[in-house]
Structure formats: C-alpha cells, structure tokens
Design a protein that fits this description.
mainly alpha; 17 helices; globular
C-alpha cells in the first residue's frame, strides 16, 4: 500500500470511528441537565445509564479482539461505526430512561468493536517512526468526544434541544467511512527467531496494567459523565460548564498526543503514564476544592490534560509489545478500561447523591493516584528490558 496515502487515511478513519463510538456516553453526561428534566434522570440514574455503556463495552470487549482477528480490521471497524450510529439515533429519539439505558448499551458494544479493530489497523500500516504520533492522535478520540460533547451544550443542547445533539453526532461517522481504505493488511507476525517462551509469557504482564487502567478509567469516565452536572450543581452556569468541558477535551487531546509523541520511545513508558495519572489525580481532586471559574478551569486543565493523557502512550506500548496479537492485547486493556468505566460512574453517582460532589471528586482523584501506584510497583518488580527502537521493547 502507498504509505503516503494509506497510513494517513487509516489514522483518520479509525480516529473518527473511535470518536463516534464514544460520543453516546459523553453526550449523555453533557446533556444531562436538559434530558434529566425531560426524562426524569437524576445523578443516580445518570450513573446507571453511563455504566450501562461501559458494561456493554466490557462484555463485548471480551470477544472484540477475536472478532477483529477473525473478520479483519476493516469489517470490524465498519460494524463498530454502524452500531454507534444506531446508538446515537436511538438516544436522540429515546422517550424514557429505559430507552437511554438500552441505547447506551448499544454504544458500548460499538466501542468494543471499533477500538481493537482500529489499533490492529494502525499497527498493520504504520512505519515504526510514525507510531508515537499516530497513537497519540487516535487515542485522542476519547477527549475529542468530550470536546464535541462540551461544545454541544451551548451550541446545540441549549439552542435547539438535547435530541439534536445526538442526531448531529451521527455526522462524525461520515469521514470515518469515507477515509477507510477498501483493503487493510494484517499485522506482520513477530519473527520466529524470538524465543517462544518470551512470547508466551507476555500476556501475563498485562494483568497489573489492566488493573491500573481500570482504576484510572473509573475516574476518567466519571469526569466525562458528571462534569457538567456537577459544575452546574456547584453554581457554574450551564454554558460555562459546557465550555470548560470542551477545554478539558482540548487538554486531553493535547496531553495524549504530546505524551505518545514525546515519550513513545522511552525505555519505561509506563512510568511516564504513572506520572501523568498521579498529576491527573491531583487535578481531579481539585475539581472539588475550587469555588471560582478560574480555579475550576485550572483544575480541569490538570485533570484532563494529565489524567486523560496517559492512554495513547500506554496503548502504544502494549500493542508494540504484542505484534503477534495486536487486537487481542488492545482488547485486554480495553476490558480493564471498561470495568473502570462501569464502576466509576455508578459509584460516583451514588457517592454524589449520598455525600455530595466534593467527596465524589476526591474519591475519583484517589483512584488515579492508586492507578499510578499500581504501575510504579509493576515496573519496579520487572527486570530491565532491552530497548529495540520505536517498535516495541519489553515483556
């Protein structure tokens, strides 16, 4: 394939596919004050709906990597896009809380297919020197979805209604379908010269990484789902809260790109991820301790820029470490993310309802700090690994 065309087109396609698959859950949070009034959705019910998305992502994610390997990354990506469109259309026309939950589940299934398929597609076409840049861009899809959802509050939700925000989000699927090439190669299998024992041992190293991802994503998903409603409850005007969430999305995009591009060839990239998680934990806790718009904005920049910035670097490292099973490795990490996505919004909603948003934000910040500690312990216990350029390195 022509590298000048193929990897750029694939990157654009999988980034848009990942973004449209994440929009249902972020729009649920951003539009919560408006749809809550129409469908009687309080913080507890919002937590259930958001968690339903992540539950479906976790369950379908158990087989998502296998589907991508069996059916190919292109077919699986298209399936993810189509299911995401169904989710958005269903949410736009929902007439009850039960319908919100059903179509949130559909959205989670879309993400579970699009994510490993996209990582597999990228790894198959990217030259090693482009991977840091490309995975930074692709993993910016989550804060990108947050950015679009935040902008949707003042531009769409508060002008023509929350239903039109979900309907307009369907348009993100178009560039994904247009850019996706007709054929995608499969990733090259690791050379047989590598000792089989090393290859067989690698999957076991993903357990603590997946655990850290689950803890971090518990905080990240709660932030995306409750940021607007919590800010409004604290006295911030809804348009301002929407713009601040959009600011957080911009910071998350920048953080993921810079971390992947700048530290993609580091000897211990997971230690960099731990540092970002720790800084993000402090910022997330800071969301509870600020009473001014300026202070809230500063905490948002740190919470989203650092607290969301680790994902691209971590995904790049895990995928590069498993070139013989890229989609399965990506799916394993995605399942951890989904588990955190399930627990985070549900627990945040319960804590916010019972003890208030201050305690909920402090708890979310604590999850990120604990995730950082898990990665630090994991890296301290494993033996130093040789660095083999930008393609992959350890375990």
């Amino acid at each position: 394939m022509d590298e000048r065309v193929s990897w750029g087109r694939v990157l654009a396609a999988v980034t848009c596919a990942a973004t449209v698959s994440m929009l249902p859950v972020f729009l649920l949070g951003a539009a919560a004050p408006s749809l809550g009034a129409d469908l009687h959705v309080d913080a507890g019910r919002l937590g259930i709906a958001v968690s339903a998305f992540w539950i479906a992502m976790a369950l379908v994610g158990l087989v998502g990597g296998h589907v991508a390997h069996a059916r190919g990354s292109r077919a699986t990506t298209i399936a993810g896009i189509a299911i995401a469109v169904v989710s958005l259309v269903g949410l736009a026309t929902a007439g009850s809380f039960a319908a919100l939950v059903v179509f949130a589940v559909v959205g989670g299934a879309a993400t579970a297919l699009a994510t490993p398929a996209g990582d597999m597609a990228l790894f198959s076409v990217l030259p090693p020197e482009r991977r840091g840049f490309a995975y930074g861009v692709k993993q910016a899809s989550l804060p990108g979805a947050s950015l679009l959802a935040g902008l949707g509050v003042p531009l769409v939700v508060l002008t023509v209604g929350w239903r039109w925000a979900f309907a307009a989000a369907v348009l993100v699927a178009l560039p994904a379908l247009i850019a996706l090439p007709r054929r995608l190669p499969r990733p090259a299998v690791r050379s047989a010269a590598e000792p089989a024992g090393r290859r067989a041992a690698r999957p076991r190293g993903l357990v603590p990484v997946s655990t850290a991802v689950a803890l971090a994503m518990a905080a990240v998903s709660a932030t995306g789902g409750f940021y607007v409603v919590a800010a409004v409850a604290g006295g911030t005007a809804a348009p301002t809260a929407g713009f601040l969430l959009a600011l957080g999305g911009v910071c998350g995009i920048s953080g993921r790109f810079v971390a992947s591009w700048r530290f993609g060839t580091a000897a211990r990239p997971l230690l960099v991820c731990a540092g970002l998680m720790a800084a993000g934990g402090l910022g997330t806790a800071g969301l509870a301790l600020t009473g001014s718009t300026g202070g809230l904005a500063a905490a948002t920049v740190l919470a989203c820029g650092a607290g969301w910035g680790w994902n691209g670097l971590l995904t790049q490292d895990v995928v590069a470490s498993h070139p013989e099973a890229t989609a399965r490795a990506s799916a394993a990490i995605m399942v951890g993310a989904a588990v955190g996505g399930v627990a985070g919004p549900a627990l945040f909603g319960l804590v916010a309802t019972g003890a208030g948003y201050t305690v909920a934000w402090l708890s979310a910040g604590g999850c990120l700090l604990l995730a950082a500690a898990v990665l630090v312990v994991r890296e301290a216990r494993r033996a130093p690994a040789p660095v083999s350029g930008a393609t992959g390195r350890h375990r």
